[in-house]
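**Sequence, structure tokens**
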Amino acid sequence: MSNESLSYLDDLEIYVECNDVEAITGWLSTAFAYFEVIRSSKKGCKFRCGQSGLSGNGMVVLNAGRTGFTSVWIDSKDTPWNNDVEMGRAAFAALNSEVRCVESAWTKGDDPDQWLQINAQGEQIIQWVTEEP
């Protein structure tokens, strides 16, 4: 995997060990120039966001894939972060909750269970098998 490949990602996604949707949307609302929750449910929310007049869509999904982690997904490049790792570091700093994200864009032959874990002990590559056995 190569960090250079992260610049080609059209979206960002991180997984946060936090089930407090209000805390997550509070963090996102301070990170973006424009942020609006457009729909909420017991499972999370959908939102619109943007930095420079453009707007993107995103979702917060509690217990995504039954992992115990909340997915935060943004379908836009108009963000304060250049890649998933920068977004993950910002989320950890704001929420003080463990974050998992891809270290780089996935390419054929890469291990799909390899993730970057960010927590109070620092950053490390881990194996995170997210599929049900």
Summary: Confidence is low (pLDDT under 50) at residues 1-6. The CA atoms of residues 78 and 115 lie 24 Å apart. The chain has two helices and eight strands.
